TrEMBL record, chain A:
Membrane topology, as annotated: Multi-pass membrane protein
Keywords: Membrane, Transmembrane, Transmembrane helix, Transport
Protein name, UniProt field: Osmoprotectant transport system permease protein
Family designation: Belongs to the binding-protein-dependent transport system permease family.
CDD domains: TM_PBP2 (cd06261)
Species the sequence originates in: Lentzea albida
Claim: Cell inner membrane is one of the keywords in the record: no
The ABC transmembrane type-1 domain, residue ranges: 21-200
Entries under PROSITE patterns matching the protein: ABC_TM1 (PS50928)
Gene Ontology cellular-component annotations: plasma membrane
Localisation per UniProt entry: Cell membrane; Membrane
Segments passing through the bilayer: 25-47, 54-78, 84-106, 147-171, 183-203
From TrEMBL, chain B:
Cross-referenced Pfam families: ABC_tran (PF00005)
Matching InterPro entries: AAA+_ATPase, ABC_transporter-like_ATP-bd, ABC_transporter-like_CS, P-loop_NTPase
EC primary class: translocase
EC number in record: 7.6.2.9
Protein name, UniProt field: ABC-type quaternary amine transporter
SUPFAM superfamilies named in the record: P-loop containing nucleoside triphosphate hydrolases (SSF52540)
Sequence similarity: Belongs to the ABC transporter superfamily.
Entry keywords, A to Z: ATP-binding, Nucleotide-binding, Transport
Domain of life, per lineage: Bacteria
GO molecular function, one term: ATP binding
Domain ABC transporter, first and last residues per copy: 2-237
UniProtKB/TrEMBL annotation, chain C:
Residue span(s) of domain ABC transmembrane type-1: 15-197
Protein name per the record: Osmoprotectant transport system permease protein
Protein family membership: Belongs to the binding-protein-dependent transport system permease family.
Pfam families the UniProt entry points to: BPD_transp_1
Transmembrane segments: 20-41, 53-75, 132-160, 180-204
Length: 221, 360, 212
């Protein structure tokens, strides 16, 4: 069953597993970067001002209902084959969870803390950047890591329109009725998802203040 | 120092939170705003550092109209302490305290040094500095809140129900600590509370707010107790305000001798005998025993509160709470020096009143 | 839009298949997730096992699960069960957490009061815990339903039915209108299902909006 996956012949060359893995990781990381650059400022701003929350929630829900396959195909039909349609489809997929997480995170900061931030003389930018966002980080990471899992899994579909990534193994295997190759694709995607999540979990540990960890596990030495 | 001139705050929904407030807070005093919820006390406080802007009227801090100062700059010059402290959970205690100095452009080392000093001033051990707020008790958090407010050494301190979220024992500690700090630092403090006892204890002057944003009375605690301006103030101050007045009187009360006996001694009990330990500290009363007996701790009737020579209130309470109707008087070391009687306290009160020490 | 009106019958046919393929997994998944979520809300061990397992299930791409399922359970690749099983798996994985969080969030004093009045465990669960957990549970159900409706389309990539067929056919024939028709159908279906669940939730939990 796992013969295909462990065949050394499949681990080299321009269509080998390492290349596919890197392509897949590339789609994932660039998608997340673009999506975060759009979704975090939007979610944070709306969360901070408290105005337009229904727009964020509505937009998130509408985008969630959008089938990624259809978006991918539509952009391919309009703009032609290549990586561009893949990024459009995946960024639209990644925006809702990140935006919702950021919005919820900023809204969830204790109003007493925010009141204190203004009371000690922080300007609005300081309140947002020095207090609200650092305190919202756990929920922002929650949304971001959720998006990362979805993007890793869904980037597989990119191969349907001829793009690269681990989806190639699944679709090529399907065309050849090669179950071993399909299974290899599935296993590698799941593995990559776990690794990516671990990576972001590490980043979260490094960047979130120990003061925000649940009481009991917090930095008492 | 702080002056409200015809200040009115009307919220967008039409409710009037503060109605034509005229009030002057003297420099170097604690002024307490007290009243039921919805009386405008917190709104009044928050207008001083422009957390809320008035609908009309003027607020002057040190002669300067606050509306002419940019809010963040204004707030950096005014200490602000709120309920539940409002510490930044993502910053260590030391960084929390250093917030305002850093905002005001101090260099990092100087801000840290100042923060460490303040930690000591508010009575916290230096090793608290590296902890996060979630690792502190409510009382400790509130001490850090006070330290943060004092960090840039502002002349004015605004305190919005700072001690209402902690338990009564800790609250009393924090109140005493605040009085101690104030004796050293001599700030102009505006303190908001709904607790009349806290107001009377802390305030040099107390402003009683009435629902609808009216200032009902602004006076010294003793005046408030002796001469409430209207029925609202009278009922808010409470039915036992006569008794509370005693808190502010320090008249001389005659101290009578009392029969004492050490634990383990064999004595003949006459009427009421006070049992004491080796250091002459009160342990309890013996009464209604015939003939010669040994004084055993298990036979004692436990005593009431002790009178340490402070206020008439504690003298009267000692007498009233004692099973023998004799209030035990102790010295600084806690040793028995005699007893006081309730009727002596009442006489001392009458004497003080005749001498004009009790405000009418 | 014109494609929809010109191919009315085909559109309804595809809609019916799409609805069946997305709703059946939600129902099965929900029924399975309630006892599992209840277990996770009661036991630390269950949480420690179920939550990471659910997370791993999420990381398997739907297209991969759809192509592997027939081999694992021995049916043909074109059987609808190949979509129903993976989507059920996702629904369970998502709903376990929702149900567990919802039950954990029921106020302890309410449970204590119910116990003090003499409720037995099963009756208390059915008449106190579960109803109070409904708002959060339904919120989770809405997410699961919407994401299922969107995910069914993936099945078309291996030749299964639903709106996804319109995507693949449109792609192969370079016919944008057909893809748009499927996309509109998916979004409308998702919005309707979401609204319906929202309404059901409101009718079932009138107390949730009281006192606002």
């Amino acid at each position: 069953m796992f013969g295909w996956l462990f065949d050394p012949a499949h681990w080299s060359g321009t269509t080998g597993i390492p290349v596919r893995l890197l392509e897949h990781l590339g789609y994932t990381l660039l998608t997340l970067l673009i999506a975060a650059l759009i979704a975090i400022p939007l979610g944070a701003f709306v969360g901070h001002t408290g105005k337009g929350g229904f727009v964020i929630v509505g937009l998130s829900n509408a985008l969630r209902a959008l089938p990624t396959t259809a978006v991918l195909i539509l952009v391919v039909l309009w703009a032609g084959l290549g990586d561009f349609p893949v990024y459009v489809a995946l960024v639209l997929l990644a925006i809702p969870p990140i935006m919702a997480g950021t919005y919820a995170g900023v809204r969830a900061v204790d109003p007493v803390t925010v009141d204190a931030a203004r009371g000690v003389g922080m300007r609005e930018s300081g309140v947002l950047l020095q207090v609200e966002i650092p305190n919202a980080l756990p929920l922002i990471y929650g949304g971001f890591r959720g998006a990362a899992l979805q993007v890793v899994a869904t980037a597989t579909i990119a191969a349907y329109t001829g793009a690269g990534g681990l989806g190639r193994l699944v679709f090529d295997g399907l065309a050849l009725q090669d179950f071993g190759q399909m299974l290899a694709g599935a296993v590698l995607v799941a593995l990559l998802a776990v690794l990516v999540d671990l990576g972001f979990a590490g980043l979260q540990r490094l960047t979130v203040s120990p003061g925000l960890r649940p009481v009991g596990t917090g930095g008492k030495r | 120092m702080i002056e409200f001139r015809a200040v009115t705050k009307r919220f967008e929904d039409g409710t009037i939170a503060v109605d034509e407030l005229d009030l002057a807070v003297e420099a170097g005093t604690i002024t307490v705003f007290v009243g039921p919820s919805g009386c405008g006390k917190t709104t009044s406080l928050r207008m001083v550092n422009r957390m809320i802007d008035p609908t009309s009227g003027t607020i002057l801090v040190d002669g300067k109209d606050v509306l002419t100062v940019d809010p963040p700059t204004l707030r950096r010059g005014i200490g602000y302490v709120i309920q539940q402290a409002g510490l930044f959970p993502h910053r260590t205690v030391l960084d929390n305290i250093a917030t305002v100095p850093l905002l005001s452009g101090w260099d990092k080392r100087k801000a840290r040094t100042r923060a460490a000093e303040l930690l000591e001033i508010v009575g916290l051990d230096a090793n608290f500095g590296k902890r996060y707020p979630a690792q502190l008790s409510g009382g400790q958090q509130q001490r850090v809140g006070v330290a943060r407010a004092l960090a840039a050494d502002p002349p004015v301190l605004l305190m919005d129900e700072p001690f209402s979220a902690v338990d009564p024992v800790v609250r009393e500690d924090l109140q005493n600590e605040l009085l101690r700090l104030q004796a050293e630092l001599d700030k102009t403090i505006v303190f908001v509370t709904h607790d009349i006892d806290e107001a009377l204890k802390l305030g040099d002057r107390v402003a009683v707010f009435q629902t609808g944003g009216h200032l009902a009375q602004y006076a010294k605690p003793t005046e408030l107790l002796a001469a409430p301006a209207n029925d609202f103030v009278a009922s808010f101050v409470g039915r036992d305000r006569g008794y509370r007045t005693l808190t502010f009187l320090h008249a001389e009360v005659p101290v009578h001798p009392v029969a004492t006996a050490k634990i383990g001694e064999r004595i003949t009990v006459e009427d009421w005998t006070l049992a004491v330990d080796e250091q002459n500290r009160p342990k309890g009363w013996l009464s209604g025993v015939d003939g010669e007996v040994e004084v055993r701790e298990s036979d004692l009737i436990s005593g009431g509160s002790l009178y340490d020579g402070s206020t008439l209130r504690s003298a009267l309470d000692a007498a009233l709470s004692s099973p023998s109707a004799l209030g035990v008087v102790v010295d600084e070391a806690g040793a028995v020096t005699g007893v006081v009687r309730a009727d002596d306290v009442i006489q001392a009160l009458a004497k003080a009143r005749a001498a004009g020490e009790v405000p009418k | 839009m014109t494609w929809i009106f010109e191919n009315w019958e085909r559109f309804w046919e595809v809609t019916a298949v799409h609805l069946r393929l997305s709703v059946v997994p939600v129902l099965i998944g929900f029924v399975l997730a309630v006892p599992l979520g209840w277990w996770a809300s009661r036991s630390q061990t269950a949480r420690a096992v179920l939550f990471p397992f659910a997370n791993v299930l999420f990381t398997i791409p739907s297209i991969a699960l759809i192509v592997i399922t027939p081999v694992l359970i021995g049916v043909k690749i074109l059987d609808e069960i190949n979509v129903i099983v993976p989507l059920t798996v996702y629904t369970v994985a998502l709903m376990i957490r929702s149900v567990a969080d919802a039950l954990s969030a029921v106020p302890g004093n309410v449970i204590a009061a119910a116990n003090a009045m003499g409720y037995r465990p099963l009756r208390r669960f059915l008449t106190v815990d579960f109803p109070l957990a409904l708002p959060v549970t339904i919120a989770g159900l809405r997410v699961a339903t919407v994401s299922n409706i969107s995910m069914v389309s993936v099945g078309a990539l291996v030749g299964l039915g639903g709106y996804g067929q319109l995507f693949t056919e449109g792609y192969q024939t370079d016919y944008t209108g057909k893809v748009l028709a499927g996309l509109i159908g998916t979004v409308v279906l998702a919005v309707l299902a979401d609204g319906l669940l929202l309404l059901i939730g409101r009718l079932l939990t009138p107390w949730a909006r009281a006192g606002r």
